[in-house]
Structure formats: C-alpha cells, structure tokens
Specification:
Layout (H helix, E strand, L loop, with lengths): L10 E3 L13 H7 L5 E7 L3 H13 L3 E5 L11 H11 L9 E10 L7 H17 L4 E6 L2 H10 L7 E3 L6 H9 L3 E4 L10 H7 L6 E3 L21 H12 L3 H16 L6
Parallel strand pairs: 1-2, 2-3, 3-4, 4-5, 5-6, 6-7, 7-8
C-alpha cells in the first residue's frame, strides 16, 4: 500500500496560511520557491469569507496548491449566516476554482483566547459542519481547550458523517483514542519538535499511522531549530524526521504514508 520513493522525499503541508498578512511582502517568492525544498503539496485553510476568497485565488495560481474555506472561531463574531451562504456558492461545482476546495475549515472552538463569545463560536461551528455535509467535504477542526463541547457539537450535527481532521492536535492520548474510534484524522506540526514535547510520543503511539497527517500551520509554530521565526513549508524537513521516529518508520516510509493519508482524507490523488 505504501510506495517508497528512493529518489527524494516529497513533503506535504496539509495546513499553512499563506494568505496571512505576514506573507504580504514576499508571498509569491516563498510559495514559488517551495518546490526547491521538495514541497509537493500545500493546503491553505481559510479563516473567514475574505480569507476564503484569497486562498481560492492562490489555489488558482499554483498547480499543487489547494484550499479549505470556512470561518475560524476567532472570526466567528464578525461572521454571519450570509457569509456561510457565500461560502456555499464558492463550493458549488459550477463556481470557478471549486475543484481546488478540498475541505471546510478551519473551524471549531477556541476557549483559550475566547476572541469570540462562546455561544457565537458554537453557532458558527454548527453552520460550518452543515456546510461540509451539504457539499460532501471533509472538516478541518480547531479545538483548543474545548474538547467536550467540540465533541458534543460534532455528534449533534452529525459531523462524523464526513471525514474530520483535528488540526494541530493538542489533546490527550486517551481523547485521541476516542476520536480514532469515531474515524478522525490528526495533523501534527512544529510543536512535536519542541524540547518539552514529550507528550507527543504517547499521543502519536495512540493513533493508527493511517490517520496521521503533517502540517506547519505557517506562519505560526515554527519548529526547532528555527522556533520563533516566520514559519513556512520548507520547515517540514524538521517535522518529518520527528514524526517518523514517533511512528517507528523510516523517513521514506513516512512520506509514503502521508501521501496515502492525504489522498484518502482530502481526495487529492496526484502530487507533481
């Protein structure tokens, strides 16, 4: 099942925000240069309606660039039902570029910062789940210090009827096991490389390797040894070896697993 490429490692970034203002000065140079770092695929999840339009435009400009559209919990207070209707239009197969939309997200709940009131976050999360189900798209979930409410809303809205990815997973190994039984996928980024990241050994061991995906969350969460700098997908070279060690695989096997997992979750079959 897992193909091993002896020539090079082809990196996949399932979560990077190149529409972020921190890339305004050199966005095209950064994205255009990633092939030199063997980055074969990038998925850019939006955070609101305007961001969704930007990531869709980026996807149109780069062959191996895909996107997700949705409303992040931080932006929930500024969003409306009309925004969800506009996102639904973007997802319609007849809309230009809709074939590059591979998920709904990033959406979910964030009880750490509470930039939006919790009742507003909950209502927004429900609308995004319904959008994913309407268009038969997988869901990218942001869950920070809101595990129980996230799980409750997913169950009540039948969110597990589609594929669910917990991005930048931060829960326990026990919670990961529960989510695995519900069919969830999990992505990990720079945090696994941090010096105080011992908890990830138990977490990754609790998850089947066919449910694990790589990410950077660029421009945030830069890994060691470049922690504190603006992150980008070239830093996957620091993340893959750590995940390979935690998964008990070679780096080549890990790359092949991630390619298969990305294809199954997002429905993207070719990485050129």
């Amino acid at each position: 099942m897992y193909r091993q490429d002896d020539e090079m490692i082809r990196y996949i970034d399932t979560h990077a925000h190149y529409d972020d203002e921190r890339f305004d000065a050199d966005r095209s140079q950064v994205i255009g240069g990633l092939l030199d770092h063997d980055v074969a695929l990038i998925i850019d999840p939006a955070t609101d309606l305007n961001s969704s339009r930007r990531v869709l435009e980026l996807s149109a400009n780069y062959p191996n660039f895909y996107c997700a559209v949705g409303i992040h919990p931080h932006q929930a207070a500024e969003a409306s039902e009309c925004d969800i209707e506009a996102l639904s239009v973007l997802c319609d197969p007849s809309s230009p570029g809709a074939d590059k939309i591979v998920a709904i997200g990033e959406t979910g709940l964030d009880y750490h910062y509470d930039f939006s009131p919790r009742d507003v976050q909950l209502a927004n999360f429900r609308r995004n789940i319904r959008l994913a189900l309407k268009h038969n798209l997988p869901l990218i979930v942001h869950d920070r210090e809101a595990h129980q409410d996230t799980l409750t809303v997913l169950r009540e809205e039948n969110g597990f009827d589609t594929r669910v990815l917990y991005h930048c997973y931060s829960g326990s190994a026990e919670y990961a096991k529960e989510l695995t039984e519900l069919g969830c996928f999990f992505s990990f980024g720079g945090a696994v490389t941090f010096k105080n990241a011992k908890k990830f050994e138990e977490i990754v061991h609790a998850i089947p390797i066919d449910r694990i995906l790589p990410e950077t969350d660029s421009p945030y969460m830069a890994p060691e040894p470049v922690r504190g700098t603006r992150n980008d997908s070239s830093n996957l070279k620091y993340i893959y070896p750590v995940l390979a060690r935690l998964m008990g695989l070679s780096i080549e096997e890990t790359a092949a697993v991630f390619a298969d997992n990305t294809a199954r979750f997002f429905g993207i079959r070719e990485f050129d």
